Amino acid sequence: MKIILEREKCIGCGSCVALAPKFFELADDGKSHLKNSRLPDGQAKNDPKTGNEELETEKLDSAQEAADACPVQCIHIIK
């Protein structure tokens, strides 16, 4: 399973952080960021074609709730 975050669309409302703090945090620019989606050098693991942050996970836990609550629908879940 994969969580995809379109950071360009994010408005920084924080609903994903409130609902799924295991996966999301607010970055310094005020937008959401997928936790543990960084390479060792600190760079985000972005899809080279889309620029979206991606995180593979065994369990979605509350990530689906966060995706459903996102007002701009910038969180996508691939099962």
Description:
By secondary structure, the protein is an alpha+beta fold. It has one domain (2-78): Alpha-Beta Plaits, CATH 3.30.70.20. Helix content is 15%, strand content 23%. Strands 4-1-5 form a three-stranded antiparallel β-sheet, covered by helices on one side. Strands 2-3 form a two-stranded antiparallel ribbon. Strand 2 (24-26) and strand 3 (32-34) form a beta hairpin. The longest helix is centred in the last third of the chain and has 7 residues, at 63-69. It is globular, with a radius of gyration of 11 Å. The model has no long low-confidence stretch (mean pLDDT 89).
Structural class: alpha+beta
Question: Helical segment tally?
Answer: 2
Q: What's the order of the H and E elements?
A: EHEEEHE
Average pLDDT taken over every residue: 89
CATH class: Alpha Beta
Strand order of the largest sheet: 4-1-5
Q: How many structural domains? A: 1
> Per CATH, what is the topology?
Alpha-Beta Plaits
List the helices and strands and how they pair.
Elements: E1 2-5, H1 15-19, E2 24-26, E3 32-34, E4 53-56, H2 63-69, E5 75-78
Antiparallel strand pairs: 1-4, 1-5, 2-3
Give structural attributes.
23% strand, 79 residues, 3-stranded antiparallel β-sheet, electron transport, 15% helix, single chain, alpha+beta, Alpha-Beta Plaits, two-stranded antiparallel ribbon, 2 helices
Give a concise summary.
It holds the Pfam family Fer4_15. It comes from Candidatus Staskawiczbacteria bacterium CG10_big_fil_rev_8_21_14_0_10_38_10. This protein has 79 residues and is of the alpha+beta class.
